[in-house]
Amino acid sequence: MAFTESIGSATINGxxxxxxxxxxxxxxxxxxxxxxxxxxxxxxxRAVHQAMAVGVEALPIVSLISFFIGTILALNAAYELRxxxxxxxxxxxxxxxxxxxxxxxxTAVVVIGRSGSAFAAEIGTMKxxxxxxxxxxxxxxxxxxxxxxxxxxxxxxxxxxxxxSDFMGVLGGGVxxxxxxxxxxxxxxxxxxxxxxxxxxxxxxxxxxxFGLVIxxxxxxxxxxxxxxxxxxxxxxxxxxxxxxxxVVVVDLIFTAIFYLTAQR
Length: 265
Fold this sequence. Notes:
- By secondary structure, this protein is mainly α.
- The protein has one domain.
- It is built from nine helices and no strands.
- It has helices at 2-34, 44-54, 59-81, 90-128, 131-137, 142-180, 185-195, 198-224, 230-263.
- Helix 4 (90-128) runs parallel beside helix 8.
């Protein structure tokens, strides 16, 4: 009986957590798109600042990781394809893998480590220091002031980072293809463009936008649920990273399944 009770309790808590994420996202969407129509100010400057921190400052690490991932993909593909005399397929394998899956996913993991954890730590520290209460005292809604700019920045910048990640991954595969697989840069780029379809890129960008929503929602939710004490801030940050990675993988699975089923029609 205790086993079934624990399963039921975990299920209820999980659904309540997802409901909290949806409520937080819904409030942010209302703040961004609906409240300005009613004359309420949206803090665009904070959104620009967050976009710089989330996007521009993440370019070096995203570039490096994506370049290496593209090279690793090319190496692994060449190892198997050489047995069948199909080395010309290396470019296609790298391009499709990066745009459909690894580009968005690796970008999300980097953003979780850099920004998702920072969101939880920032809001958690503000809660511990009672700065959230101070915002409410000054008639500033915490979601409007803290969360909505982060949502807008993430939804815009994660897809942009994904495009750059795709490019760097293809470039990394191209370096191997040109140096060790008898490609020229012209033939490698041509093979890449022949392999890609518009839906490969758009599917990846849709995933990236959803990843941005999930990362922001989880990071901010964990920040708001931080308990008292500096130790709790560390726990919230760790929880935000772990839960964000799990949620991103689940969302990735759901959208990959949807894209697969719709492509069969």
